[in-house]
């Protein structure tokens, strides 16, 4: 791929993984990317001048409405998953000296958003703004691969022969209106002029506040409802800055900020660099007393010496010199040859391997289709993404490089003040992520001081169950909540969407008992405390329990009941037949063996039993068998899909979580803690 792109590849280090190099992400050559960019630029030229002239006038909600997308011709009237969708660009320039790009060029900055209106209401409305990290990574990661209503459909599976999207269950828009934002300007479909790139996090906050002012002007019905900020990865820096700015802003008085949710976030380097060592030992990635352990411990010691100069959290940077080597010391032990190919650990999911030196940048496997979909001309038009002159990329290197953060201390310093203002915070972490791992998040939670106390105190760690299966742990104290999510990666929603759906509804206090007609719900509980659970799927509105994959159990029960009813009718008819036959025989015996006259047409009809439609019975029995085999078949198909990930393979078995490739153990992760 290096020869295709024309970039010299080096082993990625530390934030090279968070600020994904878009060159690694592309599955085509540079000429393909350039031709796509040129086509998009030519398409933009016709509307650019008109758009620039109308910056002072905001688009209307009608201008931003999205009636359809390739694969879903009528979103709002979809038979099982109706969705109201808006998308487009909203001006975000906050004014001279506030947000980078001063002068005429800076005034052109716009943030792109895509909003999915809540499909159901449980007591009250809720609004959630989602941000992906990077810095410079598009929130289409969230909407198309994590917590949104869509997933891509490969071209090989569509009638059009092009990548399309489909609606899926488990998205957070089920009970909250979710707004996915590409920010800072220049990220994803957001527009930034050449001299308008941002350099500090407070500039990003200023752009967001201006965006929100304009957003509420366009959608006044959303102003004043309970609002949450959520995201993942480097959004662990964005979100505390945004929350702090909103709480202090006179431009957004009485803003109803009800909570922050940060998943596998990069928040506090002082706590998270040592977390790499904790994680490596606890997961068995590195064994104590080995040369690899000595190398890792030495890297941590050098890092801690660099950290000694930072005693004031408000002067601690988000990235500390000489500390990236700590994570490198963990991953370097897993660079090896496999079947003649150099591979390495996927730093976003340690259960996976990837081609070296990508080490996770080719992941997740849906990404190539996301690229293809978001570069379709009809998709760009449908999403009203008019101003961006270059083709969409997942993570923009220019945005990342310009955001140097020289005067932006690490966001962890802001968390105590936010908590003390009564804003709850949920930290959640997939347990298979290395780069922003749960051990580092745990260190952050336990080190914070707020309300006169440190950390979570004596708060118990509850086991978290969904449908009687433990899916993680949950701890709460004084407004802070910390959730570990089992069997999930850096992108938790990609792996376990139903679990994250339950998680966010629990955090937002969604009371599903307020939903009319909800007869069947899945159970969700912490320890022994059970609450009203969730129902995920097309049948949820009618109160139907669901099978994996989004179809309802009612179909299976309907077939079973139908089969039993037919069987009952059959037995009844047979019983009646033999009853009358026996009665007839008795009567004939009494009449000297002479039977009653028969209609001649009965000869054509044959015996009653032969006229029963056995084919219908066979269909019903087939349906029952399919229902009984559903879970087993689904798991087989799911495992098959996971094995199709390009350039990576799962390396765990049912017993020791070791990598198996042709009978050879590649990565050994040691023993898992069975009683988590």
UniProtKB/TrEMBL annotation:
<feature type="transmembrane region" description="Helical">
    <location>
        <begin position="556"/>
        <end position="580"/>
    </location>
</feature>
<dbReference type="Pfam" id="PF00450">
    <property type="entry name" value="Peptidase_S10"/>
</dbReference>
<keyword id="KW-0472">Membrane</keyword>
<dbReference type="GO" id="GO:0004185">
    <property type="term" value="F:serine-type carboxypeptidase activity"/>
</dbReference>
<dbReference type="GO" id="GO:0006508">
    <property type="term" value="P:proteolysis"/>
</dbReference>
<keyword id="KW-0378">Hydrolase</keyword>
<keyword id="KW-0645">Protease</keyword>
<keyword id="KW-0325">Glycoprotein</keyword>
<keyword id="KW-0812">Transmembrane</keyword>
<keyword id="KW-0121">Carboxypeptidase</keyword>
<keyword id="KW-0732">Signal</keyword>
<comment type="similarity">
    <text>Belongs to the peptidase S10 family.</text>
</comment>
<dbReference type="InterPro" id="IPR029058">
    <property type="entry name" value="AB_hydrolase_fold"/>
</dbReference>
<dbReference type="GO" id="GO:0005802">
    <property type="term" value="C:trans-Golgi network"/>
</dbReference>
<feature type="region of interest" description="Disordered">
    <location>
        <begin position="632"/>
        <end position="676"/>
    </location>
</feature>
<keyword id="KW-1133">Transmembrane helix</keyword>
<dbReference type="InterPro" id="IPR001563">
    <property type="entry name" value="Peptidase_S10"/>
</dbReference>
<protein>
    <recommendedName>
        <fullName>Pheromone-processing carboxypeptidase KEX1</fullName>
        <ecNumber>3.4.16.6</ecNumber>
    </recommendedName>
</protein>
<comment type="function">
    <text>Protease with a carboxypeptidase B-like function involved in the C-terminal processing of the lysine and arginine residues from protein precursors. Promotes cell fusion and is involved in the programmed cell death.</text>
</comment>
<dbReference type="GO" id="GO:0006915">
    <property type="term" value="P:apoptotic process"/>
</dbReference>
<keyword id="KW-0333">Golgi apparatus</keyword>
<keyword id="KW-0053">Apoptosis</keyword>
<feature type="compositionally biased region" description="Basic and acidic residues">
    <location>
        <begin position="648"/>
        <end position="659"/>
    </location>
</feature>
């Amino acid at each position: 791929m290096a020869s295709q792109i024309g970039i010299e590849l080096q082993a990625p280090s530390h934030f090279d993984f968070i600020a994904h190099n878009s060159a690694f992400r592309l599955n085509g050559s540079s000429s393909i990317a350039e031709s796509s960019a040129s086509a998009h630029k030519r398409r933009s030229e016709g509307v650019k001048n008109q758009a620039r002239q109308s910056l002072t006038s905001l688009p209307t909600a009608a201008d931003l409405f999205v009636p359809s997308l390739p694969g879903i011709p009528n979103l709002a009237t979809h038979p099982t998953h109706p969705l109201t969708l808006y998308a487009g660009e909203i001006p975000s320039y906050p004014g001279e000296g506030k947000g980078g790009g001063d002068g005429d060029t800076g005034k052109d900055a716009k943030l792109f958003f895509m909003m999915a209106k809540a499909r159901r209401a449980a007591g009250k409305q809720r609004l959630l703004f989602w941000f992906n990290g990077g810095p410079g990574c598009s929130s289409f990661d969230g909407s198309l691969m994590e917590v949104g209503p869509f997933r891509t459909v490969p071209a090989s599976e569509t009638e059009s022969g092009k990548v399309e999207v489909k609606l899926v269950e488990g998205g957070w828009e089920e009970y909250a209106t979710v707004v996915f934002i590409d920010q800072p300007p220049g990220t994803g479909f957001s527009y930034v002029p050449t001299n308008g790139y941002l350099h500090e996090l407070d500039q990003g906050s200023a752009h967001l506040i201006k965006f929100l002012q304009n957003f509420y002007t366009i959608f006044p019905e959303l102003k004043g409802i309970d609002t949450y900020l959520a995201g993942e990865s480097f959004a662990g820096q964005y979100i505390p800055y945004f929350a702090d700015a909103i709480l202090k802003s006179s431009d957004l008085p009485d803003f109803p900020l009800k909570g922050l949710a940060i998943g596998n976030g990069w928040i506090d380097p002082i706590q998270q660099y040592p977390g790499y060592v904790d994680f490596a030992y606890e997961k068995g990635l590195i064994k104590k007393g080995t040369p690899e352990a000595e190398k890792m411990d030495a890297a941590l010691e050098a890092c801690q010496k660099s950290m000694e100069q930072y005693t004031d959290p408000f002067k601690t940077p988000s990235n500390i010199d000489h500390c990236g080597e700590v994570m490198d010391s963990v991953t370097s032990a897993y660079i090896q040859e496999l079947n003649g190919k150099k591979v390495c650990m996927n730093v976003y999911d340690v259960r996976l391997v990837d081609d070296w030196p990508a080490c996770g940048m080719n992941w997740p496997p849906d990404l190539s289709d996301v690229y293809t979909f978001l570069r379709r001309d009809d998709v760009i038009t449908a999403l009203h993404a008019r101003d961006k002159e270059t083709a969409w990329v997942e993570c923009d290197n220019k945005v990342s490089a310009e955001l140097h953060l020289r005067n932006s201390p690490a966001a962890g310093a802001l968390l105590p003040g936010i908590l003390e203002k009564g804003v709850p915070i949920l930290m959640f972490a997939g347990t298979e992520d290395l780069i922003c791992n749960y051990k580092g998040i745990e260190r952050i939670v336990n080190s914070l001081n707020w309300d006169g106390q440190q950390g979570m105190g004596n708060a118990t760690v509850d086991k978290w169950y969904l449908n009687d299966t433990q899916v993680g742990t949950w701890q709460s104290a004084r407004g802070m909540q910390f959730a570990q999510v089992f069997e999930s990666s850096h992108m938790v929603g990609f792996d376990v969407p139903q679990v994250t759906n339950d998680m966010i509804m629990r955090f937002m206090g969604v009371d599903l008992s307020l939903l009319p007609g909800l007869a069947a719900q899945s159970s969700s509980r912490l320890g022994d405390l059970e609450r009203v659970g969730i129902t995920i799927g097309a049948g949820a509105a009618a109160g139907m329990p669901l099978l994996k994959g989004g179809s309802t159990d009612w179909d299976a029960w309907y077939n079973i009941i139908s089969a039993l009813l037919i069987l009952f009718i059959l037995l009844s008819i047979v019983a009646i037949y033999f009853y009358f036959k026996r009665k007839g025989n008795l009567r004939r015996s009494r009449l000297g063996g002479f039977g009653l006259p028969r209609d001649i047409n009965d000869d054509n009809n044959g015996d009653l039993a032969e006229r029963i439609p056995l084919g219908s019975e066979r269909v019903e029995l087939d349906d029952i068998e399919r229902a009984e085999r559903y879970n087993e078949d689904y798991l087989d198909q799911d495992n098959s899909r996971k094995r199709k990930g390009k350039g990576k393979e799962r390396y765990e078995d049912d017993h020791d979580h070791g990598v198996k490739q042709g009978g050879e153990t590649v990565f050994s992760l040691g023993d898992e803690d069975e009683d988590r």
